[in-house]
Design a protein that fits this description.
The protein has 300 residues and is of the alpha+beta class. The chain contains seven helices and 21 strands. The structure holds flavin-adenine dinucleotide (FAD).
Length: 300
Amino acid sequence: MNVDLYAALRARVKGEVLRDEPMARHTSLKVGGPADFFVVPADLDDLAALMALLVETGTPHLVVGGGYNLLVRDGGFRGVVISLAHFVAVERLDARRVRAGAGVKNRDFVQFILGEGLAGLEFLCCIPGTVGGGLAMNAGAHGGEILDRLEELAVIRNGEARTVRQDELDYGYRFLRLAPGEIIVAGTFSLEQGSPVEIGARIDAFRAHRVESQKIGYPNAGSFFKNPEGTPAWRLIDSAGLRGERIGGAQVSEVHANFLINRGGATAADFLALVKRIKDVVRLKTGMALEEEVRIVGER
Ligand SMILES: Cc1cc2nc3c(=O)[nH]c(=O)nc-3n(C[C@H](O)[C@H](O)[C@H](O)COP(=O)(O)OP(=O)(O)OC[C@H]3O[C@@H](n4cnc5c(N)ncnc54)[C@H](O)[C@@H]3O)c2cc1C
């Protein structure tokens, strides 16, 4: 750990600065070694000051939202992990537009738009995480994807803030191309006015469907692999005979074959070994290549 960098972070950043913070505390898989530093900037100026320091010192960074789609290796992260947990402003801009900070939890965002009688992002109710993480992943469910409702993205890169229109973005299924080092700070969404009763009914139906289909019971990161064109990943894993497959504390869920679970005491290495086995066996038995949806980061 770099003691000078710690001193500089404490001097220049108003928000929280933690040292050697276990990433297992910040990911839903509950694995991952320490981040050298874990910083929670107080506001946009603070984030800009932090980014300027990171550029000056050539320090790598990683943004974490809710950590629901993140596997951090056991060696942790050499550099600064940034949480935008204080970027939680949500405001209605006009009849149909809403702006939400990157740190807003999806469930709070959905509550807000329901209260405003705005429709179009109800599916977010079932996706754990934050607006920033959702935008970075182009999160989606029930036929909707968050970037389809985006009007404008507010980003910061090397300390410089700018906005990008949705039609300027390169995005697709669980994918958004961000420039290296770019951080999403907020999104402006274009929604439709609707009946709160009907919006609420759709949210309730989505939630009920989730409770039925995803009684997983152990820490997980949702669907681990992207669905290849035409075939759900769970079916490939299942037909390769891997439902229930276990390495150390990491296991293919018996309930949903595209969910990998932490049965207790799993390491990131257990998950990585299981991921490799799944990819190898699925390729051998079905000829299909699986690609991770979960982002894998950090040191071995
Ligand atoms: C039970 C369960 C069910 C799930 N169901 C779904 C589903 O139906 N549909 C779906 O799409 N996903 C689903 N997921 C996966 C996950 O919830 C989504 O990917 C979610 O959008 C992740 O948000 P997060 O804030 O946790 O992001 P994180 O996991 O913290 O981060 C994900 C990626 O985004 C990057 N990132 C995060 N914030 C920012 C930012 N502000 N700027 C730049 N980059 C950023 C991170 O560096 C990382 O690469 C599920 C997960 C679980 C555990």
